[in-house]
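Lab notebook, bench 4. Still working through the backlog of constructs that have no structural model yet. Next entry is a single chain of 130 residues. Request: give me the structure tokens for it.
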Amino acid sequence: MTAIDAQTLLSQWQAEYKVPGDILWGGYTELGGNVSDGYRMGQCNYTRYLRPGTAEWVPRSTIYLDEGMENAPRFFQESTLYHEFAHANAYNEDMESDDHNAHFREYRRRKPKYWIGDIILKLIGWIWCR
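Model written out:
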């Protein structure tokens, strides 16, 4: 998946759900972890910034996939990207980290095919992320 593809998907999902703020593709990077301490396929970093010329705080989420995911089939990359998007979407609505609580799960359930991909990755993701 190219950076353009990933950002296009994030932008489409953001428009579909009318998410406030920014949700950005950060790229592939080494996220660390292993099977014994929980390998990571994706990560969402949160921040907010003061919109220039206003007193309005704007949420910004940046999504990264582990560098091993670059070799995973596209469906699994998209499943991980959507999992992280669900985190970003929940954060951008209220600017609070929602971890894997009900707010996050509400968004994750909106695209069942990616939820299924995410479940499968919990079992086989170690193939790409070690």
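Notes after review: The chain has four helices and three strands. The first strand starts at residue 22 and ends at 29. Flag for follow-up if needed.
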